């Protein structure tokens, strides 16, 4: 290992699972850098990982338990939780309670939650946000392989000759894996990349071929591929001895009639490339999982790899990239309502018996519990009477989010464990429990390629906050099971989990970490990243090169699948297809990433990507506001007019909540329709209607106070000294000064105001103790001031604003592309055009953009292409 000062831990965000080294920065804070020895990233980081240290502040942290909004001591809170759960179970049975947990918990936290619900409360009503994320993959893996096994490793992406990315915006969502792919292609230009995504994403910068597929049509495309594999004699006959169901799957593929929305020429090119390249990896993510036929999409992909025997060998295989840092660990501990620990199966009496004996458990559910969407429906109907939500924000991220919010609000007893009291969900809790967060607790996580890494503590937990495993164990003890929840440290939990995995593996399960069953505290502290399985039976590596599937006869099942369109129909009333997903610099509901000023600069407010033809037809102008309505709800978003989306389709990011943009809650638009097998919601194919949202004024503001004005549209992002805000209102305020003082909660501030009634323009600066505390620019059109410049005026004397040197006169660096070095789009374009820069490297050499973490390099490449076409056109 490289001898580096600092603590080695794992990034808090995505499933790539990068190792980081955290060290004091010499100024009272911390510096985070990539761990050169971690196999996932070898020192690389992305923009979110690089900004981790900016999210560690204590501002807004929940520091003590709260009961009914008042601070309480732990004893009272724990007794209340254990008591209310116990009473509810006694009165209404174990299925009247539920846990809703998260792929962001550590394995040790997750193991205890699952043990408590399944083994001791005796219900399977524990489900996880992984239901919204990985459930279709889990179901697809299980029905093909017999277990939820990811066969390959990250190295396969580098060793492949063809990498196909299906419904994956890898450049933004798994940026370090994307960087590894970029480096592999640079070293070996023969490596081909195909992206399959209705949108032209940043990932498409790397693609030799982009298939802008019709939403939901992946089964049709992969059925075409399977039929062609059969027709062209590309089936691997030797491998076929390990397979069942091939004839049926091929017959279904040949009978496929579903359209793909793709030109035949592109389909032909794709089929030739896939069939003609032995070393092919098909990476898939939410464009596959989050559909009402997500499980079938997974099967359609697996079928092609199974038929050709391209699985489990270097550079070959289907590869599900996981979203959350411990999505895999959660699956391993059985955190979904239809699984048991260690990939044991709830429907299997032998498996249930094993677990019950191992845990000395009083009870064991015999049938699966409620899946996330059903669970919140049961909450709404009063069938779930006590609910504990841990490490997730369902009031924002479940489909039909307004209804979910109301269901939680109406539930008899709601406990929320989080770092913050202000999330959309935490606001609804009867009891709030302060959890220790990243950097404050110890445990393990498993990344997309089965590598288990340690998260290590380098900070004390603030206030009374405790690790989730400790809170759950305390409740277990207080509910009457002192021995089963006698855990004093996370390593004790991991040891138990590891021992159980050995028993499960002896019954033919894949997950086996029994080598860790005797790990002592020191070895746990020093644990280096390792890929499971780790046992006397086998260690690391890939699965299935020689068959050996985890089905009763050891053969994989090829499941026949038929394409189906999205479950929600578009019609005259709701004519647009709504696709939702992620942006580069924010993490889900922004409770952590939203605290880093540099991450708010890339895309600072909720938006809707809409095709220029649709925008013109509907009278939606660039940067104006759009009202988006579905059968479930409504949102107001900024129009981003772009041909990156197909006509008739729109895309909105999932990140904004009532905390940052009350009108921008995209979860409120998503229909609660699910895949019938996996129960995963279809978050990528809603039906909506769009209208220009007409306002009397648009505004941009900065404020040092924590106020979010209650205007018709408001979105805020962190800046160094406070917040920056985009505002709009349907009616003009009578008095801008009165309005501003109230909006920014500065009742006694001195106001400097310039109002031009004829042009409908107003500028207000609010000054207290000689310093600018808030400033507002308003006008009838979207305000074109330099956001960065105005933000830099906070805390200043305001002389510039007074002297009329308005921020509007400054060159605007534009939205930040390079968040590490804070370089805006306009700055890059000017440099490209004036210095004749032709490559991403040249831009880096000239102005530094893209030279640190590299997450913005695909966007710089895209800018370069646009500048080139502009020059060519001139
Ligand atoms: N920056 C950032 N990174 C993240 C996260 C984050 O919040 N922010 N979250 C993490 C998590 S939990 C997850 S699950 C992953 C998700 O990672 P991804 O799955 O890569 O991200 P998404 O943006 O949800 O969706 C991927 C793409 O699917 C496309 N798509 C939509 N419908 C279809 C379809 O029918 N077929 C196909 N082929 N494609 C379709 C969308 O246009 C979108 O570009 O990201 C992880 N990484
Ligand atoms: N429309 C739409 N909706 C989606 C998706 C989509 O693509 N489109 N994607 C879905 C997917 S794939 C996912 S994974 C989900 C994610 O959705 P959520 O899980 O609901 O979102 P997060 O913001 O990650 O919520 C995590 C919460 O846990 C808290 N937290 C952080 N660390 C800890 C800890 O150590 N302990 C505890 N107790 N709490 C902690 C955070 O403050 C935060 O409130 O969203 C899903 N919803
Ligand atoms: S790719 Fe970025 S967000 Fe994901 S684990 Fe690595 S540094 Fe963290
Ligand atoms: Mo996810």
TrEMBL record:
Cofactor: [4Fe-4S] cluster; Mo-bis(molybdopterin guanine dinucleotide)
All residue ranges annotated as the 4Fe-4S Mo/W bis-MGD-type domain in the record: 4-60
Presence of keyword Thylakoid: no
Domain of life: Bacteria
InterPro entries: Asp_de-COase-like_dom_sf, BFD-like_2Fe2S-bd_dom, BFD-like_2Fe2S-bd_dom_sf, CT_Nitrate-R-NapA-like, MoPterin_dinucl-bd_dom, Mopterin_OxRdtase, Mopterin_OxRdtase_4Fe-4S_dom, Prok_molybdopt-oxidoreductase
Pfam families recorded: Fer2_BFD, Molybdop_Fe4S4, Molybdopterin, Molydop_binding
Keyword Ribonucleoprotein included in the entry's annotation: no
Keyword annotations: 4Fe-4S, Iron, Iron-sulfur, Metal-binding, Molybdenum, Nitrate assimilation, Oxidoreductase
Family: Belongs to the prokaryotic molybdopterin-containing oxidoreductase family. NasA/NapA/NarB subfamily.
Protein name (database record): Nitrate reductase
Organism of this sequence: Defluviimonas salinarum
């Amino acid at each position: 290992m490289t001898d580096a000062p600092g603590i080695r831990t794992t990034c808090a965000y995505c499933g790539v699972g990068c190792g980081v080294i955290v060290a004091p920065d010499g100024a009272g804070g911390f510096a985070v850098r990539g761990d050169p020895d971690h196999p996932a990233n070898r020192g690389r980081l992305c923009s979110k990982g690089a900004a981790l240290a900016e999210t560690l502040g204590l501002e807004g942290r929940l520091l003590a338990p709260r009961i009914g909004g008042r601070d309480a001591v732990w004893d009272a809170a724990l007794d209340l939780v254990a008591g209310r759960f116990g009473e509810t179970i006694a009165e209404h049975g174990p299925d009247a309670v539920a846990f809703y947990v998260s792929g962001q918990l550590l394995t040790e936290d997750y193991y205890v939650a699952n043990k408590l619900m399944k083994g001791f409360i005796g219900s399977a009503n524990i489900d996880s946000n992984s239901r919204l994320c990985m459930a279709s993959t889990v179901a697809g893996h299980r029905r093909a392989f017999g277990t939820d096994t990811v066969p390959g490793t990250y190295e396969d992406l580098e060793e492949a000759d063809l990498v196909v990315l299906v419904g994956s915006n890898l450049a933004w969502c798994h940026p370090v894996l994307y960087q590894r792919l970029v480096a592999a292609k640079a070293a070996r230009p023969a490596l081909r990349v195909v992206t399959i995504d209705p949108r032209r994403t940043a990932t498409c910068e790397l693609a030799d071929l982009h298939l802008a597929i019709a939403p939901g049509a992946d089964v049709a495309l992969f059925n075409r591929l399977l039929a062609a594999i059969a027709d062209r004699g590309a089936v691997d006959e030797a491998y076929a001895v390990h397979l069942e169901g091939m004839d049926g799957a091929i017959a279904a593929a040949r009978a496929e009639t579903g359209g793909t929305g793709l030109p035949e020429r592109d389909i032909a090119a794709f089929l030739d490339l896939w069939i003609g390249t032995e070393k092919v990896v098909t990476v898939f993510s939410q464009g596959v999982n989050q559909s009402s036929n997500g499980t079938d999409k997974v099967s359609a992909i697996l079928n092609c790899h199974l038929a050709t025997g391209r699985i489990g060998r270097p550079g070959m295989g289907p590869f599900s990239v996981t979203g959350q840092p411990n999505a895999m660990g959660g699956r391993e501990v059985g955190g979904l309502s239809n699984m048991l620990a260690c990939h044991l199966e709830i429907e299997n009496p032998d498996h249930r018996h094993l677990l019950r004996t191992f845990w000395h458990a009083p009870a064991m559910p015999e049938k699966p519990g409620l899946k996330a969407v059903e669970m919140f429906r049961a909450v709404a109907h009063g069938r779930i009477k006590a609910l504990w939500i841990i490490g997730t924000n369902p009031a924002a991220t479940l489909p039909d989010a307004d209804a979910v919010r109301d269901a939680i609000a109406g539930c008899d007893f709601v406990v929320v464990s989080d770092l913050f009291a202000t999330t959309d969900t935490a606001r609804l809790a009867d009891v709030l429990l302060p959890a220790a967060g990243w950097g404050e607790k110890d445990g393990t996580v498993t990344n997309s390629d089965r590598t288990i890494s340690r998260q290590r503590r380098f900070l004390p937990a603030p206030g009374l906050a405790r690790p989730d495993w400790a809170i759950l164990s305390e409740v277990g003890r207080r509910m009457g099971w002192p021995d089963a929840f006698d855990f004093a440290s996370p390593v004790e939990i991991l040891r138990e989990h590891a021992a159980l995995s050995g028993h499960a593996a002896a019954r033919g399960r894949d997950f086996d970490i029994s080598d860790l069953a005797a790990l002592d505290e020191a070895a746990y502290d020093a644990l280096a990243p390792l890929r499971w399985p780790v046992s006397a039976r086998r260690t690391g590596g890939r699965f299935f090169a020689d068959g050996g599937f985890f089905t009763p006869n050891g053969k994989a099942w090829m499941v026949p699948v038929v394409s189906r369109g999205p479950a929600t129909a578009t019609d005259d009333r709701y004519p647009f297809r709504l696709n939702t997903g992620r942006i580069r610099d924010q993490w889900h509901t922004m409770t952590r990433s939203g605290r880093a000023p540099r991450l708010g600069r890339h895309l600072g407010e909720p938006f809707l990507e809409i095709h220029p033809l649709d925008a013109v037809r509907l009278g939606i102008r660039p940067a104006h506001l759009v009202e988006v309505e579905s059968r479930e709800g409504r949102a107001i978003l900024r129009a981003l007019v772009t041909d990156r989306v197909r006509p008739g389709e729109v895309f909105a990011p999932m990140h904004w909540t009532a905390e940052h943009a009350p009108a921008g809650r995209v979860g409120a638009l998503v229909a609660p329709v699910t895949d019938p097998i996996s129960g995963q919601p279809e978050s990528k194919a809603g039906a909506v209607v769009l209208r220009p949202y007409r306002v009397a004024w648009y505004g941009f503001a900065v404020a040092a106070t924590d106020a979010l004005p209650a205007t018709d549209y408001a979105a805020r992002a962190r800046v160094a000294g406070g917040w920056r805000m985009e505002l709009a209102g349907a009616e003009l305020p009578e008095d801008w000064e009165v309005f501003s003082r109230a909006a920014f909660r500065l009742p006694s501030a001195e106001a400097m105001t310039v109002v031009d009634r004829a042009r409908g323009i107003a500028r207000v600066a609010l000054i207290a103790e000689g310093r600018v505390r808030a400033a507002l620019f308003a006008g009838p059109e979207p305000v074109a001031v330099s956001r960065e410049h105005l933000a830099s005026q906070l805390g200043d004397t305001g002389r510039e604003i007074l002297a009329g040197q308005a921020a509007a006169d400054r060159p605007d660096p534009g939205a930040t592309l390079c968040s590490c070095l804070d370089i805006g789009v306009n700055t890059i374009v000017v440099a490209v055009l004036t210095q004749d820069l032709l490559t991403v490297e040249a831009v880096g050499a000239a102005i530094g953009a893209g030279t640190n973490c590299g997450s913005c390099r695909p966007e710089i490449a895209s800018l370069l292409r646009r500048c080139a076409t502009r020059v060519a056109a001139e």
